[in-house]
Amino acid sequence: MSVEQAPVQRADFDQVMVPNYAPAAFIPVRGAGSRVWDQAGRELIDFSGGIAVNVLGHAHPALVGALTEQANKLWHVSNVFTNEPTLRLAKKLVDATFADRVFFCNSGAEANEAAFKLARRVAHDKFGPEKYEIVSAINSFHGRTLFTVSVGGQPKYSDGFGPKITGIRHVPYNDLEALKEAVSDKTCAVVLEPVQGEGGVVPADLAYLQGARALCDQFNALLVFDEVQSGMGRSGELYSYMNYGVTPDILSSAKSLGGGFPIGAMLTTDALAKHFAVGVHGTTYGGNPLACAVAEAVLDVINTPEVRAGVKARHQRFKTRLEQIGQRYGVFTEVRGLGLLIGCPLTDAWKGRAKDFFNAAEQHDLMILQAGPDVVRFAPSLVIDEADIDEGLDRFERAVAHLTQA
What we know:
- The protein is of the alpha/beta class and 406 residues long.
- It has 2 domains: 11-59 and 304-405, Aspartate Aminotransferase, domain 1 (Alpha-Beta Complex); 74-302, Type I PLP-dependent aspartate aminotransferase-like (Major domain) (Aspartate Aminotransferase, domain 2, 3-Layer(aba) Sandwich).
- The protein contains 15 helices and 17 strands.
- A hairpin with a 2-residue loop joins strand 13 and strand 14 (341-345).
- The termini are far apart.
- One of its GO terms (biological process) is L-arginine biosynthetic process.
- Its main location: cytoplasm.
C-alpha cells in the first residue's frame, strides 16, 4: 500500500528550509543528458551542471547502472572495514595522477580541510610548531567550514563567526611578486586554485604556478592545488595541473568526481600521507561504497582521449559564439577559462548585474551560473551534445537581447 505524498511547492522552501539559499522559482524534477524538466513540464537546457558537478549530465546510464548495481550489494560499512569500490577508485586515481595515496570524504570543503590539516601536520612533525602559516589568494574559495572559509580569500564568507583561524595570509592571485613577499620559513603551504572558480573563472598564468612551485621547494612548504571545481576533465585534462605541467604535493577533488553523488578526495604522496597515521584524521562516510562505485564509473567514462578532446572542442564552440554575443550586445569584456569552465566578465555598463543574466536565461528556458556579481559562468556537462550547445546559446542570445533592450 503506497502512502499518498502531499504536493510539494516552491513556497514550501520559505516555510521549512533555513534561509541561507535563494533558489530559483521553479523546481526541477527530472533530467536527461543536458535537459531538465520542472514540475509544470517545462524543458530547460542545463549549462550550469549543478555548479560543475554533473560532469556527465543527468541520469547518465553508466552512473545509473553503477549506483543501482552497488545499491543491491553494500551501502555502508564504515572505515572500520574497507570495501571494493573504494580500493578500485583509489587505484585508478593513483594510476592517473601524481599521487600515491588517496583520502576519501564527502565534499570539496572536507577534501580541503584534510589537505590543510595534512599540510600543517607535516610541517609540525618535520620542522616544529612554528611552521604553520598558509598563504592563499584573494578571491579564492575553498569551502564553508571555519578552516576553509578562513583560507578562502573572501571575507564575506568568513566574517561574523567569531575569531578566525590564525596563520593565514592572502595575496593577489597571479601576482608572483606578492607571493614571494608572503612566503617564508614559517610557511607550511601555498594553496591555489589553478583556475579560480567562484572568484570569477580566472586561470592561473603558467609562470605564476611555476613560481609557486619553486617557492614551496625553496622554503620547504607544500603546494596545494584546490581542483574541486577545475578537476575531473573539466579543463580538457583529467586535472588542471596537467595543462600546466606543474605538480602539486596535495590535490583536492570533489564536485565532478561523483557526477552528482556526494564525494570528495584528497590526493597526495607516500611521504606526506604517512603523517596521517591511524586516528589522526577521519570521516564516517568517506569512502562510502555507493559514492565510490559512482565515482569509478565517472572516471572510467571521462578519462579517455575522446572525452578530453571533446571538452576542448566544445570549449571552442562555446567561446566563439559567446564572443560574438558579447560583441554584438556589448556585455562581455572577454571569454575566459579552461575547457568547460567558462567565465564571461561583464562590461562596465553591466557590472554587478550577473544575477540579471541568470534570471533572463531562466526566463528563456536556460540554466546558467554566475561567479560573483560581475561574471557570467558556464559549467555544462563534458559530453553535452553539440545540438544542445547551439540551442542553449540561441536561448542565451535571446535572453541577452531581451535584457539589453529592456
